Sequence to fold (393 residues):
Amino acid sequence: MNKPLMTTYARQPVSFARGEGVWLWDTQGKRYLDALAGIAVCGLGHAHPAVTKAVCEQAGTLVHTSNLFTIDVQTRLAEKLCGIAGMDSAFFCNSGAEANEAAIKLARLYGHNRGIERPAIIVTEGSFHGRTLATVTATGNASLQQGFEPLVPGFIRVPYDDIAALEAIAASHDNVVAVLLEPIQGEGGIRVPDAGYLSAVRGLCDARGWLLILDEIQTGMGRTGHWFCHEHEQARPDVLTVAKALGNGVPIGACLARGVAATTFTPGSHGTTFGGNPLACRSALAVLETIEQDKLVERAAAMGEYLLASLRERLHGFESVADIRGKGLMVGIELDRLCRDMVAQALADGLVINVTAGNVIRLLPPLIIERGEIDIIASTLAHLIQNFQTTRT
Fold:
């Protein structure tokens, strides 16, 4: 199966043929409730009419010209996205990894411009920032780095959600130029930091002249009940990376910046062939407009509260459930042992989920989800976890 493809994925033996809203159908006609949304990508669900219309119209008009020329729809997208995010300028690329790569290069250039010969960026344990050589180095997961050494120098790693560790680095290093972290660690197991952590990091960056770079690739675009997760604490970054849900499945990423960070790149500093092409930008504009018009940020907040309450009610007293946590429609159920087989078991029951960090069921349903569909998620998972609990070995 899939012999022409490199074996970079341990794929499930299911192939989806079509989707509509929160539902997917496989090639055999079986229906599944999608509680993963392509790993936080399809925030508007599948085959959303506004995105479909925008992509079809743009594909019939102009798909690509390159960034050697002004791209009108790219400029309009930059203005709208920066306005929503409170940022000054945008660089468009094709993925979250590329957005983080741009942010890392920007931070290093910022440091060199300040006379720092070997600038360092602080990153955290348990993080995930991408699969390029620089972003996998920044990622706090040794198993993802194994075999790809030598890794990229210039990163200092500290525990997540530990402001004292950051302060210790500030006292012992004079070449730090930035802190890069996720407001909630997604791949790390839906790890939500303590209240005040992000604002404390913001304050330390201000005091030290460091850039605060927030990777909102998974948490952004309304996922946590705000447009961006840092808004829960008013910890506005200097550099903000987004992707995933920005195009609702059409590949696009963005590195947004404000203040001095917004003017650090100059012509020739960075570039991309495909990034910000008319097709991707038109899709992203349709996504932003739909989120605004349909009040999906507010919906994510309300539906997220309902999802958490439903799970806590149905899973109350389950000994195998260590924790249920999250913000908005980004929820993790931590079990007391490895539970990777739960993905296949959920598929058999018509539910698409994911397990991350080995023992955390990750739920990232589309923002358009309704209460009845959340009830299906909660009841299905309660059944699966009950079976998991009774088959302890």
Remarks:
- Residues 50-293 form a domain with the Aspartate Aminotransferase; domain 2 fold (CATH 3.40.640.10).
- Residues 111 and 117 are 8 Å apart (CA to CA).
- The longest strand covers residues 321-327.
